[in-house]
Amino acid sequence: MGFLKATDSDLWAAAKVANRVIISKDHDFYDKALLLGPPPRVFHIDIGNASNKKLIELIEVGWPEIEKALLEGCRLVTLRREGVGEEKPIISVF
Predict the structure, then answer these.
(1) Axis crossing angle, helix 27-36 with helix 8-18, rounded to the nearest 10
(2) How far apart are alpha carbons 68 and 60 in whole angstroms?
(3) How far is the C-alpha of 65 from the C-alpha of 83, rounded, in Å?
(4) CA–CA separation, 40 vs 27, rounded Å?
């Protein structure tokens, strides 16, 4: 499948069959994870506009908790930050 032209439904179906984690800033995947549950699991990044450097920093700081939740089979893990410029990520697990 050409993932660049795939619809959200195509990506969801492919990730479900392969038992993968979808990593996305798209709220549609957040909603699907809550409604449909795993598989696939979703790592939702909800930090608004941020540089790639800031995004990587937040993921690195939160990674131990993110990885643990995904390995335990949580259907949805969300990464947020407390406010603009905040260094500490907030991890929500469902």
Answers:
(1) 50
(2) 13
(3) 20
(4) 15
Q: What is the value of pTM for the model shown?
A: 0.90
Distance CA 42, CA 22 (A): 5
Length of the chain: 94
CB 47 within 8 A of CB 82: no
User: Between these two residues, 86 and 73, which has the higher pLDDT value?
Assistant: 73
Average pLDDT, whole number, for the chain? 91
Report the C-alpha gap between 15 and 26 in whole angstroms: 15
Can you give the pLDDT at residue 83? Answer: 65
21-60 burial, b at 16+ Cβ within 10 Å, e below that, comes to bbbbeeeebbebbeeeebbbbbbbbebeebeeeeeeebbe
